[in-house]
Here is the input.
Amino acid sequence: MTPLIVRLGTLFVGGVAAIAVVLTPGRESVGQVAKAPAAAGPTTYSAIHCIGCHGGPDTPSYRAYMADNINRPTEFCKLTEHSTWNSDDLHSLAYENIRPRFDDRGEPLNLAGRMQIVLARSPDRKDKEYRVETAAECLTCHAVDRKPGRIAGPTEKAGERFHTLHGVSCESCHGFAEQWFGPHVQAATWRKTIPADKSKLGLVDLRDPAIRAEKCASCHVGNTAEGKFVTHEMYAAGHPPLPPFELVTYSRDQPRHYFTPSENKALKALPKEDAEKYFHFRSEETENARAFAIGTVATFEASMRLLADDAEATAKRTGEMLDLAHFDCFACHHDLKVPSDRQARGYRGVPGRPIPRSVPTDSIRAVLKHANSATNIDAGLDQLAKAFDARPFGDPVQVAREARALAESAVAARGEVNKASFTAAEAQRLYDALAARAADPKSMAVDHDTAQQLVWGLDVLRRDLKPTATDSPAHAKLDGIVRLSLRDRERKTVEARLAPRLKQLYGFESKSFGPALLEWLK
Amino acid sequence: MVAIRLSAGALIAVVLAFSMAWADRPREESPSTVAYSIRPAKFVGSLSCASASCHASGELKSAGGEYTTWSDGDPHAKAYEVLSNERSRRMVTLLHGKKVGTPAPAYENKLCLSCHAPEAVGSDHLTPVGVGCESCHGPAEHYLTTHYRSDFKSLSRREKAEQFGLAPTKDLAFRTAQCASCHVGDSTRDVNHDLVAAGHPRLAFEYGGYHHNPKYARHWNESAYGPDFDARSWEIGQLASAAAAAELLAVRARDTDRPWPELAEYSCFACHKDLDGAAWKPHVAPLRAAGNLPWGNWYFATVGLLSPEVQAEVDALAMAVEKPRPRSEVATAADKVAQRLKRLASEHQARADADSKTRPYTGKQLETQFDRVVRHALTADGTKFAIADWDGATQHYLSAAALYHSWAAVDPAGRDARPRPALEAIRSGLQFPYGVDSPRGARPADLLNQFRRLRPVEARP
Here is the structure.
């Protein structure tokens, strides 16, 4: 077999000379790449370096690669990644969405403008010429962060730390390309490099669901160690509520710009042990059950870590309350009904004490049981509930302690879940166990986010086992109650998405969810 | 039961005795500014008052029919009964939660009884009968057999209180404090957020609104006051209620066995609103970040009208509550505000004692105060509510209505009829929709326009 690198080299030289320029990192001719001072972290290649090969059908390289019948690179990756991201993926609008726009009279024209006005007026920010699009507290999630780490506070300015040109782009998730950019196009060697060695060059091993989940969760749940936390103040200023997180659903509806293992002809053609060794691909398993299981545990870990980290910081500041973003939005934000359905339903703890944001406990319990895990989160969750109940808005010291212990339980469970099997039969067993929990009336009397997380998990598992399951009227009905997909068919503005979402959150009633779920489970 | 009812004829009136208006009057040191030391006594039970020849003549709302009026037309008579209803049972269950054992029913719970049957709590032998005669008038041990004698009747209210234990309910500052001991709360009677979440109606006391509540049959007349009673009781009621609220805050903050932060201190509807259609959008205060809990406005919305100096202290207290500062700091600030407000209420009472009958507020004075209330509800340029929430708007409405009502009482022919439709529109605009106990679907912009239609005489159409 002729080394692939030689053939690819030929392709570059003979076929598409133009790409070579783009592929040469750090060249001054690539004007888009600003060399940042060392202190600001690695140089970002930004999306512009990737477009040459991953830009889709309109790029010369794409046609050249498609014509390469020897290497068939498009059997391994789509090479349309950039165009998918650019035209369909909301991540590419992440920075655009925080650029405030105003009319001539200074009235805001978009959500960022409204947030800007409210935030700039706060005691912490006023007189600091606050701009949301230059504030580190926003950019940590809405741009490429060259040097992820804590931020000093709400008025820390962007400086050189962030690359804002393309929102959340390739390197935000895949890692900074400075060291792996060259090697990764050399298919013969690169595809025979184990993930750990790729990681040493800075490539994030996203095929490992635990690592992928951690990456996604850093923004979609929060991570104060990386300066990422949507505070209640940001919500009050207008930030849309973060939806619950489920790894497979998020990956699918991003929308996915990569082949799943079953679509990946190159991967499937590999010897079984190589597929697993180099790409974490286990041909004997279903597509997503493992990612669902590991993602569930990792998301729980991320939620508990965020809570623990922030509660610890709060406990150090005398007299302060936990940030209200840690609580269930609807524990407080509801109109008061007469008669009150909440009072009729009863409370899990002390009446009138806001409860924490929902965590998908049914999914976690099902996953732990499936993996025969020794980890038991029930006692920990009870203790956490007590810490939240200890006084209104929780006792930060107790909350920090209990959340930390739960995060550590999740770490312990990680290995056990990783060892579990997710063959079709095992995935069916996991699905059945989760379905049985879901059919318990207690699971159906829940808030919107818990219901949505639960259903996402069930849906992911069921699609693996029975791909046509999404065509039923029951599916459409449940989708109308808790949206089963994360995105709209068309990419809409954040403003256009927010109002219907709030309507759905407030329209949620567990009494209509329960029967719809039972129907769907049949 | 809905906690706050804005019923039709409810609102009242009144007048503001204003610092400016009164600056040139001689200040008398009235006995009412000195706290009463009421003689301790034992309860004898409401039945002791219920003789047909004394207070149970059988005629509602008549002299001699006080007991009958109370038992047939006063919700206080049913206060004990409600402790056995479904809501009370559920409250007990919810508050007990997962604790071991069986909770005592509400009708045996001392906290519940302390307001719903105060006499039973203060006695070891009385059968609970709700909020009876002595709950407000004081234990009758010493005055039961003396209070109808002519020598008793010639005593001052202070002497009756200090020698015989008869509560000085004619003193409106005292009376309001007496009402507030349950309807706002005090050191032993606290309807906190835990209780409200379990099902207790929110407490939101306003003297005039309660006095004129059509569901409340009064068993007395206001013979101690002139035609400006509603204005006097409004100003004294506002101050004394605010004093009670500040005192309760101090107790809540100081007693480390109580929940803290106490959510009942904060503005209910700042949090309790569906985010998809919330109508009231509070201003972000200059010193408060968005999304912080704002302190409740119900008891302090009009304090600035009655005393700009106290308003400054109230603002400082709000800062302490909202930051939040250490409990002890809040308690100290709240105590200070409470003392100032109590003093002010007593001073207003002294003026009412001196002037209400002999030289009551004139129509012109009441008109001026009415206009002040309306201006106070809005920002200086009149384009926004000064306090952009339901509590603030409602308290200003209640105040304006009280003064408007009082204006008619002192000058039936001279009262300007033009603001009336706007007042009625505001009242109905503030009402909660059926099935909801919060201002869902309110239209603040419409309410603002109606308030602007109440604006000063010269600006009125």
Q: What stands out?
A: The radius of gyration of chain B is 22 Å. Chain B has a mean pLDDT of 89. The longest helix of chain B spans residues 327-355.
